[in-house]
Amino acid sequence: MQKNRRRPARLTPQVVVYQPNSKMRRPRHLFREMWLDLLASRELSWQLMRRDISAKYRQSFLGILWAFLPALITAAGFTFAKGSGVVNIGNTDLPYPAYIMFSMTLWQTFVEALNAPMQAVSTAKAMLARINFPREALILAKLGEVFFNFGIKLIFIAALFVWFRIPVTWSIFLAPVALIHLIAFGTFLGLLLAPIGVLYQDVSMGITLLTGLWLFITPVVYPRTTRWHFWADCSA
To answer: Do residues 43 and 136 touch, judged by C-beta distance below 8 A?
Structure first.
């Protein structure tokens, strides 16, 4: 007897119609489509994030230590410079090793969020040209990697708080709000620079120079109240 075999159902290709009308005329409809695209890209972004994290630390001897090692080395250098009297940074509310490590962790997280959109687009050029998929997945995957790296840094920061016996106050609950705003600001700037950065490598190299200067003109490695004293001591 011959068995009846069901034929696989044919998938109807999705038809996308592009119109010259600007979607900004209907903001509610535009934001609704953006939200639906974000929801549709969550599974792909999860897979891309796992792939990127695995590829980044798989062929490394130190592994995930690289997530906080740059901030640790920078913090150690400034702590040594302050202790030896090379620079007069001033007094901080926290012990300076904990202060500089916490500040450098936030700064490194901001720089990672700033570079994330450009790195995502640059590494996925071939995939963007050949495959039709939600582009938001690239950005979400990089943002997930930024939060993953910060989670590793957070373990080291907690160890510093225990080592120096720093009391935990109620303001610690406001830290996630500030962190989200910091990452959102860095991602926003990165999204503005990503289209130009894909065409010209000068943008990525310029960001490296700019963030290096930005580190010293903002109160990251020194308290805000002693900013002018810091520059006066350095110039002297």
So the answer is: no
What pTM does this model have? 0.74
Length of the chain counted residue by residue = 236
- Rounded distance, CA 79 to CA 214, Å? 19
Please give the Cα distance from 178 to 106 (Å, whole number): 10
Cα separations in angstroms, 28 against 21, 32, 106: 15, 6, 34
CA distance 201 to 48: 24
Q: CA 43 to CA 34: how far, in whole Å?
A: 16
**H or E element that contains 39:** helix 27-40
2 sits in the region (left: phi over 0; alpha: psi -120 to 50; else beta) called beta
pLDDT tens-digit readout, 101-144: 888 888 888 998 999 888 888 877 777 777 777 777 888 888 88
